[in-house]
Amino acid sequence: MAWTILPLLVAFMATTTAAAADGDRKPYVIRMDVSAMPAPFATHDGWYKSLLSSATTASSSPAAEHLYTYTHAMHGFSAVLTPAQLESIRSADGHVAAFPESYGRLHTTRTPGFLGLTAGAGAWPASRYGDDVIIGIVDTGVWPENPSFHDAATSLPPVPSRWKGECESGAAFSPATACNRKLIGARSFSKGIKSRGLNISDDDYDSPRDYYGHGSHTSSTAAGAAVTGASYFGYANGTASGVAPAARLAMYKAIFSSDTLGSASSDVLAAMDAAIADGVDVMSLSLGFPETAYDTNVVAIGAFAAVKKGIFVTCSAGNDGSGGYTVLNAAPWITTVGASTIDREFTATITLGKSTKTIRGKSVFPAPAASAIAAGDLYYGRGNRNKQRCAFSSLSSKDVRGKFVFCDAGGVSVVEKMYEVQNNGGLGVIAAATDTRETTTMSPADYTSPLVLVTPSDGAAIQRWYASPSPSPAKSTKSVSIRFGGTETGVKPAPAVAYFSSRGPGKMSPTILKPDMVGPGVDVLAAWVPNKEVMETGEGRKVYTDYNIISGTSMASPHVAGVAALLRSAHREWSPAAVRSAMMTTAYVRDNANDAVLVGSPSGSPATPLDFGAGHVSPNQATDPGLVYDASPDDYVAFLCGELRYTSRQVAAITGRRAGCAGVAVAGGGGDLNYPSFMVILKNASSATRTFTRTLTNVAGSPAKYAAAVMAPAGMKVTVTPATLSFAGKGSKQGFSVTVQVSQVKRSRDGDNYIGNFGFLSWNEVGGHHVVRSPIVSAFAQ
Fold first, then answer.
1. Which of 96, 89, 94 is nearest to 53 (CA)?
2. Mean pLDDT, range 122-140, rounded to an integer
3. CA distances from 245 to 17, 223, 409 (A)
4. Is pTM beyond 0.90 here?
5. Range of 756's domain?
6. Residue 332: which CATH number?
7. CA-based, 20 to 30 A from 503: which of 19, 155, 344, 557?
8. Is residue 30 in some structural domain?
9. 635-658 pLDDT, tens per residue?
């Protein structure tokens, strides 16, 4: 399986057209109304298997194959069926919905400090580092021997008594040695992928053990134990810690390395079903299926069931880049997380000749500890533009063998320049980057030979030095030496929205601003699998590591899962919606240089809420938000019935509510969903007016008064009624309305930019310190 810089599970829907032949068997997920179960059956499982038996008898086809029975993520089952068997199930009493299997393939030492987490004050001591909270991760498995999953050094108390999960045995996975007070559960789900005759790769394990590394990385990011001396070949050296280091972890492996596919929707739903039954408090999924209607999206269905049980669910937003309407996992009951950069860069220092002049560039080349300094003569193809840029087939081994090669910006990508040098026997590459994106698109696995990226201005300095007379008449060549393994923190500006992070709004419910927030997702160091090479250098050296640096919204979701664990530990009474509200209304939108957060740093344009949602997560502020926008599962049902106009059957398929939309109050539509943001969709005109109603709940310990403050751009008028709110003690509620008038907004010339304009509503505590801020956004319809 090829590794990419942006690890996110992107699923591809199987065709919904049934073949005419009865022998065309396919897996389906079936939702059932358990109130229709006939009296003779003692269990739902027995009823489902009887239906499958009857469906088989009614045809001359191979027997219907039962895969999973679901009792928590939804009521129903999955099975491999022929078209005739499917129709037999659909005609049975109690059938609610059936949809085909979906398949997929694959989508810290600094980040806790960057998030402001310290032992002295704030979220860590307030939550006792996430003590007594259980985080469930649905991913590629876990490598239990990694120190991030050990409990010896953490002095964790016994496993919470409410835990009902398992530590399963399987290939190369023994519960006796794998699980402990940190990693309290591990299970795997592969029936769906096997039902299609897809073999799990010989390199992977039919067990909870991780082959790919992705699951170990995400789980250690959320709640890994503190590990001193962690690094990637000297880069990012320090103490690696999860965001909630005292929280417990449970792994639910549902993603495998197989013949052609990586996951099956029935397996993912089974993993979510088990996590709900086991008693997790927080669930994180760094994966996603295409944004279909929520009644056919297993992540949306499973997440709704989890939220009904009080479980906070966070998902990655996707890595589809800067275009609007690209965000995944956008159901309003899911907390959707985009990716941001942090204030850290990995560096190499170039010394020009024997002078004291040095240039600092960017590199993640995994130099062996014994040879962290590389030295050699430098070649630059002066007078030939193709040679200067190291274009394809421009260099000759006669000129560059055994030398470092300097490559100008432009022409071809940095990776192509490196391969051209490498193919001609060059020792390594110093390349001038064309722009910031060229440095951030490269993963550590791309550094197959010694490579240093420098700015265009530093590249010009190297050219001038190369052209200057040699200090030694006897030696006409110029030499350089490079020290790898550098790490610089405090880099400005940071954070910035990662260029690859998917943008909102969501396709299925555009009136809800997505993503909800952003969190660290670029160059994150976390646990890895030691037996799978992360790369192979040009000279054939295979590189292995216990800790790896990777990027993607996959890395951002477990950061927010860790923050949610801290908040759940500090505030056990908070609902999932309250936890999300606390993070959204305290998120920040200015970087460490006190400027507007950018898209791509440092030369990018200012970001908007379609890029970052409410802003960048801030755990310490979220611990004490003052007020929250709360919401219940019934509120989401009203949203589905009112704003999205879902049928009763669709609502039943998502929520399990047998009555569907019957008796649901939908006055005001989706504008009345008590969400911590305000979204106006511009349809056939560049102007619109919408009134929202909201309710705030006091979660502070004393009475308080708040005053509304609006920051709105030209073309947006915002009216808040009433303009002040007075709250009694903790738990008191106050409602208000917001009318947003958008007039004559011009659409950007960039066809992918859907932003109209945006502002913010802040509720400022009178005589206090709480500020409860929400974005107000207008966006053009897709």
1. 89
2. 95
3. 48, 5, 43
4. yes
5. 674-780
6. 3.40.50.200
7. 344
8. no
9. 999 999 999 999 999 999 999 998
Structural domains of the chain, count:
3
For the chain, helix (H) and strand (E) counts, in that order, are 20, 37
DSSP 209: B
pLDDT at 11 over 50: no
- CATH number assigned to the domain comprising residue 717: 2.60.40.2310
Digit-coded pLDDT (tens) for 281-314: 999 999 988 889 999 999 999 999 999 999 999 9
* DSSP assignment letter at 273: H
Are 442 and 524 within one domain?
A: no
Helices (H), 502-632: 553-570, 576-585, 609-612, 619-622
Looking from the CA of 334 toward its CB, the CA atoms found within 13 Å total 32
**Integer angstrom CA distances of residue 2 from 7, 128, 287, 383:** 11, 40, 17, 38
Residue 361 CA neighbour count, 13 Å, CB half: 31
| Integer Cα distance of 741 and 736 in angstroms | 17
| pLDDT of 749 higher than 60 | no
Amino acid code (one letter) for 586: T
Residues 209, 173 contacting (CB under 8 angstroms):
yes
Helix locations, 656-742, DSSP H: none
Number of Cβ within a 10 Å radius of residue 676 = 30
Catalytic residue positions? Answer: 139, 214, 554
Reference 251, options 299, 226, 214; nearest CA is 214
- Give Cβ neighbours of residue 220 (< 8 Å, ≥ 6 apart): 146, 148, 149, 240, 242, 526, 527
669 or 328: which leads in pLDDT: 328
Please give the Cα distance from 269 to 72 (Å, whole number).
Answer: 10
The length of the chain is 782
Regarding whether 144 and 126 lie in a shared domain, the answer is: yes
